[in-house]
Amino acid sequence: MFRKFTMSAPKFIMALLLMLLGAAFIYALSKTELIVARYNLTSIGILAGGLIFYSGILVVVTMFESETVLSIAILTPSIIAVAIFVYGFIGWSLRVSLSQWKGLRADYTWVGLKQYIDLFNNDPRFIIDIRNTAMFTVLFIAGCLVIGLGLAILLEQKPKGENIFRGIFLFPMSISFIASGVIWGWLMNPSTGNRLTGINLIFHMVHLDFLISKWFTTHQPWGMAFAVIPAVWQLSGFTMALYIGGIRSISDDLREAARVDGASEFQIYRYIILPMLQPVTLSAVIILAHMSLKIFDLIVALGKQDIRLDVPGIYMWTTTFAANNYAQGAAIGILMLVSVAILVVPYLVQNMRSETEL
Amino acid sequence: MTRRLILRIFVYAILFVAAIIYLLPIYLMVITGFKPFNQVDLKTMWALPTTGLHLDNFIAGYKQLAPNFMNSLKMVIPEAILSSLLGSINGYILSKWKFRGSDLIFTLVLFGMFIPYQSILIPLVKFMFAINLYGDIPGLVLVHIIYGIPITTLIFRNYYAGIGTEVLEAGRIDGASLVGLYRWVIFPLSAPSFAVVIIWQFTQAWNEFLFAVILTNQANWPITVALNNLAGSQLVQWNVLMAATLLAALPTLIVYLFLGRYFIRGLMAGALKG
Lengths: 358, 274
Prior knowledge:
The structure holds two protein chains of two kinds.
Chain A: H1 9-31, E1 35-36, E2 39-40, H2 42-62, H3 67-97, H4 114-121, H5 124-155, H6 162-170, H7 177-187, H8 198-205, H9 223-248, H10 252-260, H11 265-276, H12 278-294, H13 297-303, H14 312-321, H15 326-357
Antiparallel strand pairs in A: 1-2
Helix pairs in contact in A: 1-2, 2-3, 3-15, 5-9, 5-12, 6-9, 7-13, 9-12, 12-15, 14-15
Chain B: H1 2-34, H2 56-96, H3 102-111, H4 121-130, H5 137-161, H6 165-173, H7 178-186, H8 191-207, H9 210-215, H10 223-232, H11 238-269
């Protein structure tokens, strides 16, 4: 790999300068602080110094005339960052979850799977969280798939203003879960009588009082079902877009052939288009399910940490940073990771395989 | 023929009803925002403003959130620019200079896009504390850039994969190196995917909550954290809250309105190829 080496004086000088500059940067910042407009950028500056130094090394690597070595060298900083911040931190979290760390001072005393066993065996809150997540996941996916597919089929009939409709169905995706939770919290206000408001007020105004809902204060465990509404509002458009892409990729010839054979529009959808959309449904389910297993900010803003809307993401947050129960928090985090990984890893592996074949 | 007409009417009816439902929350935020304080009543919350358009609520909402709005801007702009540059370089290497194991590396990087951040939160906080980046905006920028590597790399890689090798071959005959090809051939062709990635990262970081609430202290709260805090406060009138929520959502809404095409492409990239 390193057999060829072409010495080039300008490159050599440039490399030397970059490395010197980077080293000087790091040295200076280890002695003093770098403050720019009130922000303490010392650590960022040291990182930048490191990257300048590293770019000097990259210049040296270009002299070896091996593109593979250069490719790896260019990717290295990103690989290191991901290795530390994703895999290293997961390992560290795992270690914390096997300890008895409770309180501000780190305590790595090994207790095995105790945290996990406690969560499943004698923690009613965690059991509620699992139930809530399961209910949320099922209803959220079902809602997004049905509405998304329905809207996609309607828009494929090429109505006038198709683009405007598509834009309207997709825009909630650009709003934050927090803003969405705040506004839907008001729309789904459970107050009754004189304080009737939000969607309930609309039901009252159009004389459909029987529809008036207690929303998430409904008898348990159904409260969680209503938290699905804002989530579907935000992501059914995304699902619709996936389906539109899928329908468009089915060739017109195929539909034309079916029409010639005397198939009705309904039959074309039932026997040709829907079966061919299965791969789209599969990706939609995986994407939506993994979002739902992680759901956090929407519920924070919507439920204001009401236990009826509790989910693992919120439990992890409060037990770690409010109750300082780090070991338990880490265990919940790892369980969330495992549930997502079971879903996503096969998908990623399959994606990689299909690419390698190409 | 009549059957087709009925079907047509049916399609429009459903689309219209759905559109109204989707727009309901925005309608409420906008009309509430424009009402004067004395016309704000829960009983008439759905009614249009009757005494002209007033900006009282928006001004009150802006007063509540102005510093946080600025915090978010200061965080999002460097974040979007730097992470798109990083993603572009990574995507170039991983699409045009594949080596043995590069697909595996890419897949391992991609996994980072799906993890629930609760599973790395404790080490992250301790680490940021140790390197003195806890509590302030630069630290949050760094975190967003690093956890943005998977998606930015993915979008650029898929985009570059669509650029034919013959363009690169021509450059190679002219003697361009790996770096030269990027500088003179690939980078000038990258504008559309830079738009996609910058808009995607801007929206993601603007809307993000978990890192923001954990890694910043109150003076540096981005807008999502401040808005959530405002919503939980008993002291703020709901009409002001509505206006504040609209202000908090406005930058990403505007981006969507004018550059929606690019936003949707970023959205689709997140679904891999299916």
